[in-house]
Amino acid sequence: MTEYPLDSGCSSCTIRTHPLFRHLSEEELQDISLNKITETHKRGSIIYREGSRMKGFYCVHSGIVKIYKTGFDGKEQIVRFAKPADLIGYRSVVSNEPACTTAEILQEATLCHIPTDILLHLVKTNGEFAVALMKLTCKELGEANAYITDIAQKTVKERLAEILIHLDWEFGTDDLGILNISLTREELSNIVGTATESIIRLLSEFKNEGALELNGRKIKILDKPGLKYIANI
Amino acid sequence: MTEYPLDSGCSSCTIRTHPLFRHLSEEELQDISLNKITETHKRGSIIYREGSRMKGFYCVHSGIVKIYKTGFDGKEQIVRFAKPADLIGYRSVVSNEPACTTAEILQEATLCHIPTDILLHLVKTNGEFAVALMKLTCKELGEANAYITDIAQKTVKERLAEILIHLDWEFGTDDLGILNISLTREELSNIVGTATESIIRLLSEFKNEGALELNGRKIKILDKPGLKYIANI
DNA sequence: CGGTACGTTGAGTCATATCAACCATAGTGG
DNA sequence: CCACTATGGTTGATATGACTCAACGTACCG
Q1: Is B200 in the A-facing interface, judged by CB distances under 8 Å?
Q2: B68: closest CA among B163, B179, B155, B192?
Q3: Cβ B77–A147 below 8 Å, yes or no?
Q4: How many contacts (CB atoms, under 8 Å) link A and B?
Q5: What's the domain count of chain B?
Q6: Residue B39 forms beta bridges with which residues?
Q7: pTM of the complete model beyond 0.85
Q8: Tens digits of residue pLDDT in A7-33
Q9: Does A148 map to a domain?
Q10: Which domain holds residue A100?
Q11: pLDDT digits (tens, 9 = 90+) for B142-179
Q12: Same domain? B20 vs B119
């Protein structure tokens, strides 16, 4: 997970090298710089709630955000995470619909809020930007479809193994080999779509098989090929 | 489900009134007309297969197409259907990745194939079109996320009830009240993400409760509120 | 008329949810 | 400083939804 040095203007923000922003002109970046609002939030802060109207979208500068839907019985289902250089909330801005997910800070994060009309203006006037944003959306859509298939067909054990591999791939590990994302058992269960107790039992099963090292929320993957085998990937 | 009269040129195709094509100029429609290939396919025909490279996308003129992913054990998971005026395959075109789903004809269909560069050119040069296509993608993404939550949290019974309501909403019924989409029990199970036998048992349970009338693949919903109640919607 | 695909039913099993009790930890207020 | 409380983690016992397997019925098709 890369850290991007914060700065007064977008033109020197290193996120600028991201495929989405690479094609923006100095002028367009200036426009964003002048209209964005940058704020830092603590763990647990809600950025926007399911059902609310969005006035813009957010670009994650640092930290981690979890994006989830709330099921009818109140249980949350995490649909993805956002890390530095990821965008959140743009879906609702583009479709001009109320937010269909809630965004909550998982690890202290700095977010830049960019107003709706700037996004729409960019899509309409900058073809390269439009294609890049489409690519992003399509990538998310492909991942969502893949997850539907997984969750419908795989067992909880297979899914947990897959999620662990995925988290390792998306967030990496520190120098001790510990996953760079810290989740409660309940949050893990809200990704996998199962009961908290099942996650606990399976985690210790993986530990006993020598695939993991556990220390509270610190998870170290010892046998990646083994987990991949379990996950069928 | 509307039928759109086929015609030599796109400018007189009634799909043109679709939000996506509404903003195209006469010239742009002409460009599509000259480069599209229109073909009719029978039930069971594969339009494209998961993993294949796409040379363009398809616009459904008539008929129904099912879009599915194949799980590692070969079981298919239907992720959506496409009906007249829907686009298929554009995701892979935009992301320039191999297709991540398979498209198979469910009810005899006529499709127009439109080459990749035309789509990309439109996105880059026609801002209104870009926004409309983004909206479409975002809508699909929202639906996918909702389905992830459903499939992770609801029981098979709840999901089946929900799917029946959804099919009624998407495809409507004929004058006898029978669903305008005909699916095998196995296909139903491949939407819901369960075993064929479970679908059969639940369908007859719904029938016994007076919520459905069944006659082979012909399904007539008798108690829509009841099904909605079961589905928690 | 036999074959193939689809539909149905029953019985048995297993994965997973649920319920309940308990421990560990950290933050809070008197 | 310590009891108090909340939150998260763990474990065991039990219940059950849903899958699997297996047999059989049905209908259409060449």
Answers
A1: no
A2: B192
A3: no
A4: 138
A5: 2
A6: B111
A7: yes
A8: 557 777 777 778 888 889 889 998 998
A9: no
A10: 2-141
A11: 999 999 999 999 999 999 999 999 999 999 999 899 99
A12: yes
